[in-house]
Amino acid sequence: MQSQNNLETIGNLRINPLDELLVEIAQNALNGSLRMTNAALKIAVYFDTGETVFAASNARQHRLYEILLQAGKITKERLAAIPDYANDLALKENLLKNNLLEKKEIERLFSRQIYEIVKTALAWREADWTFSPLVRVRSDIRFSVDTPNLLVEYARSLPAEEIARKFKNPRESLRVKTPIPPNVTLSPTECFVFSRFEKAASTIEEIETLSGQSETETRRILYALWLGGLLVREIQNPAFSERKVSAMSSAQISLIKDDAPPVAQPAIQFAKTKAAQTEAKAGEAAPDGRQISAEEYLVRVEKATNFYELFALAPNADAAEIKRSYFSLAKRFHPDLYHKETDANLLQRIQTAFSELARAYETLKSEGSREAYDLKVLKEFEEIKAVQKAGMTPEKFDLQKQCDQAAENFERGFGFLMNENYNAAVPHLARAVHFAKDNARYHAFYGKALSMDDRQRHKAEAELQIAVKLDDKEAEYRIMLTELYVQFGLFKRAESELKRLLTIYPNNREARTLLDSLRKK
Questions:
Q1: Are 478 and 502 spatial neighbours (Cβ–Cβ below 8 Å)?
Q2: Is residue 248 part of a domain?
Q3: pLDDT tens for each residue of 406-464
Q4: What are phi and psi of 331, to 5 degrees?
Q5: Does residue 137 belong to any structural domain of this protein?
């Protein structure tokens, strides 16, 4: 475990799975945020004394407006008339202000949104995570989330081999933490196993002899009861040491003492850096008129699904509004203001956010590029609606879209290659490989195009070797690799490759002819 500073804790879900992190955070009654990154997907979960109270995600399916559309709570036409509808909290206020939904219904939708975000993150296995006790949600942004039942349900779905890894020692002792709460729904079998804890503590093997279930099923139930908060066990590989928990608790007490009145609190209170502590200048304001914090800015950029969301503007905003918002944000959150920042994670987020902001402004400031971008966004929105209507998940849609882009680029590149226009072929074939990294054919012909440039020999060889590795039974790719070796005078390598091919296909006439010609050299 490493630490970016004295209070943040970082790790990977492979070492500390999210379900166990949630239990640790609850047991230690921690306040703060858990930020997770899995490739392009980002999720942040916020806690108040160990309870999950809010979550945010940059995935489109987790946005409040998407949930409203799917639940039939609002029409596309009505949604489009709401300014800044992509901002979940701004959308909430608009719905309440215009009596479009009751407060209880909105709270229920937010709870469902948070539930789905956490459920998505529970399936992640390799994501990096950062826990910060100094990133908190505003007191009025707290929702009821049924975390215990979510974790019990998650435990029920785990494969047997994972359950075996969770409980390696049959003599491990567990004890009852609390009677079954009315809000936790257990199956009759789970209730029966829980009732076997007649004394203060029991070992796993003791419960196994009393449960009437198989070893795997008993341990699955015990794991579910622990995740649900009914049992206590010693965490084998804790993410937070006692010393770290004590330091975070002390920091929370200090932070509360130094806080401004609740009315002035930002939606998310960010850990104050030297740059952020400088005198505030006139800058970007939040929908309620207050100045946004650094964390609000970062979360907004990281969650944005289009360029307008970066600036918190409606798609019909005029050029002056876009320019004003860009220069306001650039003035307050330029990376140069944070160059002395010791938190490497924060500095990286600031730099990435500013690059995205600048890219968005360059696109939207010109009438021509903005019009092209608007058409692209509109097309994507209609595609997503069509996909949802067809019952395809957003993940499958994104995968299908990538496959389509790969195929389109390959066909164009292959056409140039056949016409011996190698310079034109290379970028299209490169994009095909980018969008479909596991397609051997795309790698092979990308390597073929690269091989026409003597300066790209090593890269061409690497691409052809990838193709052979992905599909070692395809004779064509080995022949292409052999031809590259012959082209550059690497005859021994060419001969070895042909021999490997002939062990698979001894009657391959082309390989046999090539091998005979090499032996005559």
A1: no
A2: no
A3: 888 888 888 888 877 888 888 889 888 888 888 999 999 999 999 888 888 888 899 99
A4: -65, -40
A5: yes
